[in-house]
Each structure stands twice: as structure tokens, then as C-alpha cells.
């Protein structure tokens, strides 16, 4: 596969609309969203609670169907993917870093990081070995056999990064990656994200309302009331 052009868009949303409910209780959450996330960039989607961030994130990830508009992710029109195809597309191409980490309590750090490989059909020994190697790159070799309750918040976040990156996804989506962390740990996590996740063949989309980390963005899209109100370069908004 040819390496994408650095300025090329990995995610393109045009006129995206989404509503929930019917009749008098119908709630219009997205009202015509236009958004791009480019390869080789950290794109931030910034907005308050209730602004439509999570809904848009779910649509880009193929977890929700949009009502109107178009959503193209890694060159694929999501509206043309059936449920099974969408799930396989996510597994192969999208890495997720969740707000609350979502680590499995009974699994070690290495086993948690290996979960996507196991879901893809890898043998357990090979999957865990691959996870150990990635955790070592993240400075977590000494924690690979520990359970999540033995890890600090920052260490759990590193495991979450390893899990998201283990299949070398072309799109990494981070949902509020620093909201549960103190300022210093959150900053360290963003430095780590830029170092290990960002590359010319990968786009990183960070959904946040944490103004402390804006300096790490290459591009910031501000959403309010279901509409992108402003798009700026990271340094302009920081």
C-alpha cells in the first residue's frame, strides 16, 4: 500500500446530520458537520458536553449510522458498509483509546494490549509476545505482567495506547484521553501519543474538552450545538 500524502485527509465528513427519537421528542444532535482529519496530524475535536462530539466520534468509527451527508474514512464510504463489513473495517483499521481505559480487570497489561490481535485470530502466545514488545517501547516492560488495579492512571493509559496501536491502525481515535488524569500526567500522555501514534501514514483524532492539551494539536475543530463553528491551526488556538 502506498504511503498517503502527508496533507491528505483520512477522515472526510460533509454535511453530516444525526437525530435521535421521533416526533415531538426528536433531538437533532448533528446539524450538518463538515470535518477533516489528515494523515500525519493530531486533529482535536473540541467542545463542551452535549455539543455532539461523542455522536460524531461514533459515526466516524462506524458505530452509528448518520442520517444525512457523507462520511469517508480511509477512502471508504461508511454508508456502503454493511454491519459485518463495518465491524471488520474497524478491527483492521481503527485503534481506540477510551476515556476510562476499559481495561479488563482479570487480564495482565500484556494480555489487555493483545486483545485486538486475539480478536483477529492470532494465537495467544504470539499475540501476547507482540503486546510485550509494544509495551516495552512504551516503557512498560516491567509492568507487562501486572493487573490493571496495580497500575497508575498514566500506566493504564499506556496499556490503552498499546492496545490501540498493536495492529498498526491507520486511524487512532482518542475519546477524552486526559480527562481522568492530573495535569502533569495528562501532558505526559499527550507527549507519548504524539511520539508513538503519529506518523505520515496514520491520522490521530482526539476528542476532548481539556484546554490544557491544546498545544499538542496540529488542527483544532471546535463544535457547538452540532455544528463545527471554527477550524484553526493548533498554535493559533493554543
Give an overview of the whole structure:
By secondary structure, this protein is of the alpha/beta class. The chain has one domain: 3-Layer(aba) Sandwich (Rossmann fold), CATH 3.40.50. It contains seven helices and ten strands. It has a six-stranded mixed β-sheet with strand order 6-7-8-3-9-10. The chain has a four-stranded antiparallel β-sheet with strand order 2-1-4-5, covered by helices on one side. The longest helix is centred in the last third of the chain and has 15 residues, at 183-197. The protein is globular. The mean pLDDT is 88.
What attributes characterize this protein structure?
alpha/beta; 238 residues; 10 strands; six-stranded mixed sheet; 27% strand; single chain; Rossmann fold
Brief overview:
With 238 residues, the chain is an alpha/beta fold. It has helices spanning 53-60, 83-93, 109-119, 124-137, 153-165, 183-197, 234-237; strands spanning 9-20, 27-38, 42-46, 68-73, 76-77, 94-97, 171-175, 203-208, 219-224, 227-233.
So, the CATH homologous superfamily?
P-loop containing nucleotide triphosphate hydrolases
Mean pLDDT score: 88
Radius of gyration (CA) equals: 18 Å
Provide the domain count.
1
Which fold does the CATH topology refer to?
Answer: Rossmann fold
Largest sheet: 6 strands, mixed
Largest beta sheet: strand ordering? 6-7-8-3-9-10
Cα end-to-end separation? 35 Å
Write the H/E string, N to C: EEEHEEHEHHHEHEEEH
Number of strands: 10
> Approximately how much helix is present in the residues?
25-40%
| Spans where pLDDT lies below 50 across 5 or more residues | none
Strand percentage lies at 25-35%
CATH architecture: 3-Layer(aba) Sandwich
Instruction: Tell the overall outline.
Output: globular
Discrete helix count: 7
Task: Look at the structure and give the CATH class.
Answer: Alpha Beta
What class, by secondary structure content?
alpha/beta
Amino acid at each position: 500500500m502506498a504511503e498517503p500524502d502527508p496533507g491528505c485527509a483520512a477522515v472526510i465528513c460533509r454535511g453530516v446530520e444525526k437525530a435521535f427519537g421521533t416526533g415531538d421528542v426528536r433531538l437533532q444532535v448533528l446539524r450538518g458537520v463538515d470535518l477533516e482529519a489528515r494523515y500525519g496530524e493530531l486533529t482535536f475535536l473540541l467542545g463542551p458536553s452535549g455539543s455532539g462530539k461523542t455522536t460524531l466520534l461514533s459515526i466516524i468509527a462506524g458505530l452509528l449510522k448518520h442520517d444525512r451527508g457523507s462520511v469517508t474514512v480511509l477512502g471508504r464510504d461508511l454508508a456502503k458498509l454493511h454491519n459485518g463489513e463495518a465491524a471488520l473495517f474497524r478491527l483492521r483499521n481503527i485503534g481506540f483509546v477510551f476515556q476510562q481505559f476499559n481495561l479488563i480487570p482479570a487480564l495482565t497489561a500484556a494480555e489487555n494490549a493483545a486483545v485486538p490481535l486475539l480478536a483477529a485470530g492470532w494465537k495467544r502466545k504470539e499475540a501476547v509476545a507482540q503486546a510485550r514488545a509494544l509495551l516495552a517501547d512504551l516503557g512498560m516492560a516491567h509492568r507487562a505482567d501486572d493487573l490493571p488495579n496495580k497500575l497508575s492512571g498514566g500506566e493504564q493509559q499506556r496499556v490503552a495506547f498499546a492496545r490501540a496501536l498493536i495492529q498498526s491502525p491507520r486511524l487512532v481515535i482518542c475519546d477524552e484521553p486526559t480527562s481522568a488524569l492530573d495535569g502533569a500526567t495528562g501532558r505526559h500522555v499527550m507527549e507519548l501519543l504524539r511520539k508513538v501514534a503519529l506518523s505520515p501514514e496514520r491520522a490521530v483524532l482526539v476528542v476532548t474538552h481539556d484546554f490544557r492539551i491544546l498545544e499538542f494539536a496540529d488542527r483544532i475543530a471546535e463544535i457547538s450545538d452540532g455544528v463545527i463553528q471554527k477550524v484553526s491551526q493548533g498554535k493559533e488556538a493554543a
